[in-house]
Write a structure and sequence with these properties.
71 residues, alpha+beta, 3-stranded antiparallel beta sheet, 3 strands, 27% helix, elongated
Amino acid sequence: LMKLMIDYAQKANCSFISLEVRIDNENAQKLYQALGFTVKLVRPNYYQDVHKDGLNMVLDLTTQKKGIDFG
């Protein structure tokens, strides 16, 4: 699903994709990092219901090859 979203964003000439992930969700962070996302900032208490910080992760599509092959 993420690969489809990235491909769609590239075709729509988007410059970047941004998302938030819980700071303790290491599996999701690894997935997003494998797709090229990098951490830009910490959002303190972003997930207020569980009192957890969020990480803002961004994929810069201006440096990604169009129609990238994810294997």
